[in-house]
Write a structure and sequence with these properties.
The chain has 457 residues and is of the alpha/beta class. The chain has helices spanning 19-22, 35-40, 58-72, 83-86, 96-111, 127-130, 140-155, 168-177, 188-212, 233-256, 262-267, 276-282, 329-343, 371-389, 432-442; strands at 12-16, 76-80, 115-121, 161-166, 216-223, 226-228, 288-293, 297-301, 310-312, 348-352, 394-400, 419-422, 427-430. It binds beta-D-fucopyranose (FCB). Beta-D-fucopyranose (FCB) binds at residues 18, 21, 166-167, 170, 222, 292, 352, 400, 407-408, 416.
C-alpha cells in the first residue's frame, strides 16, 4: 500500500458514547430525572424492562474507561452531557456537582492526549421540561440555548468540538411519531412541531456558542441513502419521500436555509410551517457536520404506511446485523459523497458507525471473538477512504461504541461495543475488533489492505 493511500496525518480516530447509555447513577449528586429515566421505568417500554440505572457504571468508572481509550490509541472521544445533571430542573439552578463530573472527565481526557467532542443533547431531556411540554413547547428553543450557554461557559475553553443535537430525526420520529422512544407519543402533528423546534434550538445554541467561544460547533445527523425497491415509478416516489423525510428534513433547513418541497405535502394539514425567522435561526454557519451512518434504506410504496406512505424492505441475499440492519459498505461511500454534492465542502466527521452482533462472552483465554464486526470495520473504513479519494473532506471517524451499553428500547440485548461489558461484574474486555481498530489507528489505516486476522477471514 502506498503511503498516500493511508489516512492523512491529523485524521481523528475516536469512539463515541452517550450519557444515558453508559453513565448509570442517573440521580446521583443532585441530578434531576430525565425523560429516559422515567420512560425506561414504565412497564413495557424496553426489552426486559431494562433501564439505565446502572448501565456501564461509567459515572463511577470513568478513569478506567479513559484508560481503555488510551490503550486503543484514540485521538478523540465523543460523549454527551446529561442536561439534568447540570440543570436538575432543566433550567435555572445549576448543580455544581454535575458540572464537576464532566470537568473531571474532560481534564482526564486532555491529560491523556484525547480530544473531547461533546454532544449537548443525546436524547435525555430533563423530566421537569418534559412536564412542561418538552420539545412541543416553543420555549424549549430558549431552554436549550440557556443550557448550552452554561456548558459552553464551563467547558468551552477546554472542549475544541461541540455538537448541538444527536440525530434530531430519531428524536422526532421515534419519540413523537412511533412512540418507541421517550416520551412515547404517537402523533403526526406533534412530529412536525418537534422537528421545527429541534432545528430552532440547534440554531439558537450555535448562536450562543458564537457569543462566547471560538472553536468548532456542528450538528450530528443520521443518514440513510434511499433506493427504490423496484423500477416501478411508485417505488421511486416512495424512495424520494423517504429521502426528504429522513435525510433532508434536518439538513436542508440547517445547511441551506430551506424546507424540502415534499415535506409540507407529506404532512398535509399536520404540517407546522417555518416562519422566515425560524429558518434564519435554523440556518447557522457550522464548522462541521457529524454523520452517523448505519444502513441504507430500500423503499417500497405503501399507501397504508404512516406519514411517508412507504415501507423499508430487506433486500434478498444481503447480510444483516443483530438489529436486522443490512450490511452495505458501498452505501456508506455514497452517502458521504451525497452530502458533499448537495451541501458543499463542509468538513465531515463520521460520528457514529458500526454494528451489533451476537458476541460470545469472553472465552477461557479472555478473548472475545467478533469476526463479523472486524470485517465490518475493515469494509466500512475502506469505504470511508474511498469517499475521501472522491474528494470528500472527511476529517475523522468515531466508532460506536467504546462499550456495550444500554441500547434504548432494545435494553442490553444489543451489543455494539469495542469492549465487551459483563453487566453483572462490570468487567470490560476488549473484543477482537478493539485489537483490530487499535492496529488501524496505529498504522493510519495501512492494515486495511492486509488479509483479515484468521478468525475474521
Ligand atoms: C444511534 C444512536 C446511538 C445508538 C446507535 C446504535 O442511532 O445515536 O445512541 O443507539 O444508534
Amino acid at each position: 500500500m502506498s503511503a498516500s493511500s493511508r489516512f492523512p496525518a491529523g485524521f481523528l480516530w475516536g469512539a463515541a458514547t452517550s450519557a444515558y447509555q453508559i453513565e448509570g447513577s442517573p440521580l446521583a449528586d443532585g441530578a434531576g430525572p430525565s425523560n429516559w429515566h422515567r420512560f425506561s421505568h414504565e412497564p413495557g417500554r424496553t426489552a426486559n424492562g431494562d433501564t439505565g440505572d446502572v448501565a456501564c457504571d461509567h459515572y463511577r468508572r470513568s478513569p478506567e474507561d479513559v484508560g481503555l481509550m488510551k490503550a486503543l490509541g484514540l485521538g478523540a472521544y465523543r460523549f454527551s452531557i446529561a442536561w439534568s445533571r447540570i440543570l436538575p430542573e432543566g433550567r435555572g439552578r445549576v448543580n455544581p456537582k454535575g458540572l464537576d463530573f464532566y470537568a473531571r472527565l474532560i481534564d482526564l481526557l486532555l491529560e491523556s492526549g484525547i480530544q473531547p467532542l461533546v454532544t449537548l443533547y443525546h436524547w435525555d431531556l430533563p423530566a421537569a421540561l418534559d412536564d412542561q411540554g418538552g420539545w412541543l413547547n416553543p420555549e424549549i428553543v430558549r431552554w436549550f440555548a440557556d443550557y448550552a450557554d452554561v456548558a459552553f461557559r464551563a467547558f468551552g475553553d477546554r472542549v475544541p468540538m461541540w455538537a448541538t443535537l444527536n440525530e434530531p430525526w430519531v428524536v422526532a420520529d421515534a419519540g413523537y411519531l412511533h412512540g418507541v422512544h421517550a416520551p412515547g407519543h404517537r402523533s403526526v402533528p406533534e412530529t412536525a412541531v418537534v422537528a421545527r423546534h429541534l432545528l430552532c434550538a440547534h440554531g439558537a445554541a450555535v448562536r450562543a456558542y458564537r457569543d462566547c467561544c471560538r472553536q468548532r460547533i456542528g450538528l450530528v445527523v443520521n443518514l440513510e441513502p434511499q433506493e427504490p425497491a423496484s423500477e416501478a415509478p411508485e417505488d421511486h416516489a416512495a424512495a424520494a419521500r423517504m429521502d426528504s423525510y429522513m435525510n433532508r428534513q434536518f439538513l436542508d433547513p440547517a445547511l441551506r436555509g430551506e424546507v424540502p418541497d415534499l415535506l409540507p405535502e407529506l404532512f398535509g394539514e399536520a404540517w407546522s410551517p417555518f416562519t422566515p425567522d425560524d429558518l434564519r435561526l435554523a440556518h447557522q454557519p457550522l464548522d462541521f457536520l457529524g454523520v452517523n451512518y448505519y444502513k441504507r434504506g430500500v423503499a417500497r410504496d405503501d399507501p397504508a404506511g404512516l406519514l411517508v406512505r412507504a415501507r423499508a424492505v430487506s433486500p434478498a441475499g444481503s447480510t444483516f446485523t443483530a438489529t436486522g440492519w443490512e450490511v452495505h459498505a458501498e452505501s456508506f461511500t455514497r452517502v458521504l459523497c451525497w452530502v458533499k454534492e448537495r451541501y458543499g465542502d463542509l468538513p465531515l466527521y463520521v460520528t457514529e458507525k458500526v454494528a451489533a452482533f451476537d458476541d460470545p462472552a469472553p472465552g477461557a483465554d479472555g478473548r472475545v471473538e467478533d469476526p463479523a464486526r472486524v470485517r465490518y470495520y475493515r469494509d466500512h473504513l475502506r469505504a470511508a477512504r474511498e469517499a475521501m479519494r472522491r474528494g470528500v473532506d472527511l476529517r475523522g471517524y468515531f466508532a460506536w461504541s467504546l462499550l456495550d451499553n444500554f441500547e434504548w428500547s432494545a435494553g442490553y440485548a444489543k451489543r455494539f461495543g469495542l469492549h465487551y461489558v459483563d453487566f453483572g461484574s462490570q468487567r470490560r474486555t476488549p473484543k477482537a475488533s478493539a485489537h483490530y481498530y487499535r492496529e488501524v489507528i496505529r498504522s493510519q489505516g495501512a492494515v486495511l489492505e492486509d488479509p483479515l486476522p484468521v478468525s475474521a477471514g
